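Data deposition worksheet. Section B asks for the primary sequence of the deposited chain exactly as it was used as input, without tags or linkers unless they were present during the calculation. Section C holds the resulting structure in token form. Section D is free text for depositor observations; keep each observation to a single sentence. Incomplete worksheets are returned to the depositor.
Section A, Depositor: J.P.
Section B:
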Amino acid sequence: MPELPEVEALAGFLAEHLVGRTVERILPAAVSVLKTYDPPPSALEGREVTAVRRYGKFLALETGDGDGDSEGGGPHLVFHLARAGWLRWHDTLPAAPPRPGKGPLALRVRLADGAGFDLTEAGTHKRLAVYCVHAPEDVPGVARLGPDPLAPGFTPDALAGLLRGERRQIKGVLRDQSVIAGIGNAYSDEILHAARMSPFKLAASLTDEERATLYEALETTLREAVERSRGHVAADLKAEKKTGLRVHGRTGQPCPVCGDTIREVSYRDSSLQYCPTCQTGGKPLADRRLSRLLK
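Section C:
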């Protein structure tokens, strides 16, 4: 799943390629992809893209009001790539319109000059979501987002306030978009490894020192990932993400810090990876839901 660093890079890529250009057509190819109907997607057609912004893992294309206003005011196209979605840029789109229900294509955005992009989704679980709205906050998932960890106001004290009284495991808290926006399964693993912290540690139990360590690991991990991703074209971002991960998706490989074998805890539809030596005092975690440290 694309997370904050990749979505941030996509926002930069799209801003470079879209701002100042005019939308000609919005072409849905999958019935399930559109989650709104008022305003209709056609309301974007003929409007200039004025900005591209990231909200957690959501991307929003802002358009002008149709009267030559370059400051926005028109509808927004907001989308969330979910687990298996991606964006494919084309300097020249195929002339023929997409055939609904054929292949991974979910939606096509064609610009007036013939360029544009496709939103695609692999697999059978169709969760990619597109919204045409008057403002990004009209999307429920955007409205409920917690603070952005790259925002200036996200300080050590702000993180401490979010964790205070939180009786859930720290792994789940980091992934909760209503607590902190943009962190998913992969980067929560990476942050906790950098912080040398068990994914099952209760958030409210963290000491002042542990919260400070977690904050530093969170900021460093995300900002370094953003810098690695910056400037890459959309097609290369997935591969770039994988090369930068130290524990996530590397079950059975040696930990790059201590050399211990990276372990995994599997759930019904996801898994987490961690290093026992770095994070759990050398004790493996039981591989079952709601697991605790083996005694």
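Section D:
The longest helix spans residues 208-229.
The first strand starts at residue 23 and ends at 28.
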